[in-house]
Each structure stands twice: as C-alpha cells, then as structure tokens.
Request: fold
Amino acid sequence: MTGPGGGRAPGGELVLVATPIGNLGDLAPRAVATLAEVDVIVCEDTRRTRALLSAAGVPAGGGRLVSMHEHNEAARVDEVLSWLARGRRVAVVSDAGTPGISDPGSRLVVAAARAGVPVSVVPGPSAVLAALVVSGLPTDRFCVEGFLPRKGAERRRRLEALALERRTTVLLEAPGRVAATLAELAGVLGARPVAVVRELTKVHEEVWRGPLDAAAAAFADRPARGEVVLVLGVMLGSLMMPVATDNAQAKEPARKELKELEKKKHHKHLVKKKKKHHKKKKHHKKKKHHKKKKKSKASTKAVA
Reply:
C-alpha cells in the first residue's frame, strides 16, 4: 500500500512533535518547520490538528493528516510502519502536549524502534511536567499514573498502590470526574497534599494547593472546567510533606506531625545517650573491680 504524501528516498523517520496545551504561542518554530516538511502527520483528531496547522500557516491538504487514537492505534501501527519502510517521514502529534504520555503514540514508537526506524522528538509543551513544576511539591522523584481506571477492582488496586507510593504522583482526570476522584483519593490517602492544576497556559489557569480532604470539599460543589492534572504529594514515614498553600490551617497538621517527629527523635537520642553512658559506667566499674582484685591478689602474694 502506498502511503499519503507521495514518494521519498529510502530511510524513513518517525518524529514526535509537541504541540501547545492551550496557548498557541507555545508552538516552537522547529515544530512548525517539521510539520511543514513531513510527508504524513499522524494525529488524534484531524479537525483539531487542521485548525492548529491553519493557525501556524502550515498546509494541511494532500491527505497528509491521518487519524490515530486509542480505538485504532493497534491497527494503524502496521500501516505507519509500511510508510516508514518506504522512506516516508512521519510526524506524530496529540491533541495537546507531547504525544506518547497518556496519549496515543507510545505503541507506535515501540514498534518503530524494534523495526530499526529512527525515532526523534521535537520537545515542547507537556501538561504533566508543567503541572508538576508549578505544584509546589517535590520534583526530584516523581511518577506518572495518567488516567485511573474508571471503576471496578483495577481502580481499587491502583488507589491502594498510590497509598504506598513514596514519589510525587501525577494523575490526569476528566473535568466531570474530578470531584469524585478527589473524594475517593482523600478516603484512601487521607490528608496527603495535592495540587489541582487546571487550564494551564490559558486565560483561566488555576493552581489549587492544599490537603486532599480540603480539595475534595472545595471541588464538591463546583465543576472543574478544562484540562485537569492532579499532583499528589508524598509521605515520609508518618510525616506529610509540607503543603504549598497560603492556608495556615491547612499547614497545621503537617507542623504538628513535624513537631511530634522531632520530639520522638529527641527522645530516641536521649535513650541512646543514656544507654551509652550506662554501658560506659558499667565497663568502668568492671575495670575498677578487676584492678582492685588484681591489686589485692598481688598484696596477698607479697605477704606470703
């Protein structure tokens, strides 16, 4: 089968291109140039990508746009591989952000890499990383959970696994399910800190920070519109990481736990010190007794 976009010399290439998550000004010049040059653009929704290309002044005609979404990705992979084998240069974009992160694309990348096809990236916007860095939570170690299963045993298993997670966790959620998910997370994870990040780079951008139970209450009666990312804080032993929020009341539980932990640590240090002192005293006493016994023995010998 001949792929769209016409012929090309052998040596196809797969290019992942990041697109804006809200603000069109975030489309990089190299992304525009790549999208203008490639033979085929594989995208989630051809209508949205066509609008993006139009805004960037990139031609979208000639059958260059091919849809690939969660329902047809498996079937589309072989087709795209055949175009790559014929020397086509194929770009992959998602509706917003970097393709392959909780979006179609990762399966195609795996298949292309296994087939020995060069895979490159034009980096740029990512809702996951943008939400993480503005969350006010630790960024040195993190994991991306993406979308949780909607219901059933698998969802319960994933929620239970989150309770044991010791890294900052990034979750994605549909606006209509944010309130229910926050309530469920609060029930499983308690007062763990969370940042609810919505409409990043857009006019109504919002970053809500605080403990999970307060987040569940805050979003219970108001709909969360637009793209939503939940960033969950971590627990260190029994200590909750400090919450990046202006709400002094929300910070209080963390302060109390910190104080309690410091008290326990101090007590442990005192006990250790006392034990060490007791051991030293016992050793000194034993040494003194042994010396006295030796002296007494020597005196007896001299008298004899």
About this structure: The mean pLDDT is 84. Residues 128-254 form a domain with the Methyltransferase, Cobalt-precorrin-4 Transmethylase; Domain 2 fold (CATH 3.30.950.10). The longest strand covers residues 142-147.
